[in-house]
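Input sequence (211 aa), recorded before submission:
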Amino acid sequence: MIEAIHAWVAGHGPLALVVLGVSAGIEYVFPPFPGDTVTLIGAVVAVSGEVHPLAVWGVVTAGSGAGMAANYLAGRWLRGHREWIFDRERRPWWMPITRRSLDRFEQRYRRFGPWLILANRFFPTFRAVLFVAAGLTGLSFARTFVLGLLSALAWNGLIIAAGYAVGANLEALEALLQRYNRGMWVLIGLVVAIGLLLWWRRRRRDVASEP
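Predicted structure, token format:
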């Protein structure tokens, strides 16, 4: 399957660039879509000289930017309807988040969100949620978009550089990405576990201090 996509991209020049850009955008809107794999193929094609590396770098970054903007706007829509969606009495049955918890989250996200957005492209799978949260909590679109674009530029540049390092070997590039993703999931798991432990200890301390 991947070899067939590679062959198609390698043989369709400018049209392939459009497909690469659209794929990068779809990945943000629909995370299960294998956008990273398509970007890897773009890197291999670029390194092979079939498409200019700067063209690949530009279109996949532009596609990522479009996906980021779409997710941010979805978050803004949620913000505009939060009185209904997050109200304790009127919120839909499928919405577990209350307005009070949303307000607490907004305070924290306004502080830490920009850093997460700057690093978003280096996170596996769930990075799209960061832009929905940015819109939901009212972060500036311009700041969010610029930080997200910087992250995409860095990540896509590294992917293309890795393509050069492994000699346009798609299998080696895939293996490298898989190892990276596994390492990131382990790191994320540790951070979440430490966060939960600290939250639990604080809860116990608060309960113990109550009269």
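Checked by second reader. The chain has one domain: 2-175.
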